[in-house]
Amino acid sequence: MRRALSLCLVFVAVAGLLALVPLSRSAEESETITRSFTFSSDPKVAVLTITYIGGLSGDRTVYILYGDGRLRQEERTRRDELHDSSEATLSYDEIHDFLAVAVEHALLDTSPEELLAELKHPPTIRDAGTMVVEIKVASYNRNGEDLGAVSNTLRLAAPRAQHARNPESTPIAGMVALSEHLSRYRDRLEQGGSR
Fold first, then answer.
1. HEC per residue, the chain
2. Tell me, what's the pLDDT at 124?
3. Rounded Cα–Cα distance for residues 89 and 92 (Å)
4. CB 88 within 8 A of CB 64
5. Burial class (CB in 10 A: 0-12, 13-18, 19+), 162
6. What is the pLDDT at residue 121?
7. pLDDT band at 188 (very low <50, low <70, confident <90, very high)
8. Nearby residues of 117 by Cβ (< 8 Å), 6 or more positions away
9. 12-21, 83-92, 126-135, 177-186: which range is least confident on average?
10. Rounded to 5°, angle at Cα 52 from 51 and 55
11. CB of 99 within 8 A of CB of 47?
């Protein structure tokens, strides 16, 4: 009887420990990361650059957002010859919102190696276009820790296809979200002015 009681207590103890494992894991998953940043207002500092590189053609469309709000679009050939360009002006709030998309999706926190590790299904299309994101902030604070000036460059082939294959990846979702956010300003760029 004592032996049965002892085995029962051990079973209850083990079951209790196993029940705690998912609770501690979900507590980690629900941990909120707070992020804040500032950016330079210097008209010579590119705070965000998004480059789309055509698959087989190698032609590039480059969007450069400067600290003063100038958003420049450049169409470049494979040989880096400028084919066409236009500019628009964004407000301080628009610049902040644009950069916030990258910051909230951990693009400052993700290294190129970590981004590749996020790919559960690497690209199989050799001629797919590539997106390159370069972000530069004057100061970055994560969970109360001041990290100072931070910049990062990430490169991803076929971002939309990768997002469909890896929907749980925050950085990949961030690259797609940046592309979608950029589409807000394409009309303005075509008009070559600001709204």
1. CHHHHHHHHHHHHHHHHHHHHHHHHHHHHCCCCCEEEECCCCCCCEEEEEEEECCCCCCEEEEEEECCCEEEEEEECCCCCEEEEEEEECCHHHHHHHHHHHHHCCCCCCCHHHHHHHCCCCCCCCCCCEEEEEEEEEEEEECCEEEEEEEEEEEEECHHHHHHHCCCCHHHHHHHHHHHHHHHHHHHHHHCCCC
2. 62
3. 10
4. no
5. buried
6. 67
7. confident
8. none
9. 12-21
10. 140
11. yes
What torsion do the CA atoms of 65, 71, 73, 78 make, to the nearest 10 degrees? -20
CA 46-50-51 angle, 5° bins: 120
| pLDDT value at residue 83 | 83
